[in-house]
Amino acid sequence: MNEIFAFGMPGTSEWIVILLVVLLLFGAKRLPELARGVGKSIREFKKATNEVEENIREAMKDEEKKVSETKVDSASETSKKDGSSNS
């Protein structure tokens, strides 16, 4: 398992080489556009993730409310039955 992670994260010199290659491939004028696009994509992804999490939380709250209402209804029906059989 350790062999997979033998390379680890790139160091400073590797990052410099990567940035130079990207600069050569896309040019200095395109880099800000690419960075903006990546930033927008990340923002949209986080927004969608937060919306999904919120929907899941709301569904869980609704389900808990239904369960608690069902318990209250069944408890009141049980008490009604007990009260009518004692009469």
Description:
- The model has no long low-confidence stretch (mean pLDDT 83).
- Helix content is 83%, strand content 0%.
- The chain starts with 11 loop residues before the first helix and ends with a helix.
- With 87 residues, the protein is mainly alpha-helical.
- It has one domain.
Unreliable sequence segments? none
User: How widely separated are the two ends?
Assistant: 73 Å
Beta fraction of the residues? under 5%
Shape by Cα distribution = rod-shaped
Radius of gyration, in Å, reads 30 Å
- Biggest sheet descriptor: none
Number of domain units: 1
How many separate helices?
Answer: 2
Question: Summed up, what is this model?
Answer:
The chain has one domain. It contains two helices and no strands. It has helices at residues 12-26, 30-86.
Descriptive key words:
87 residues; mainly alpha
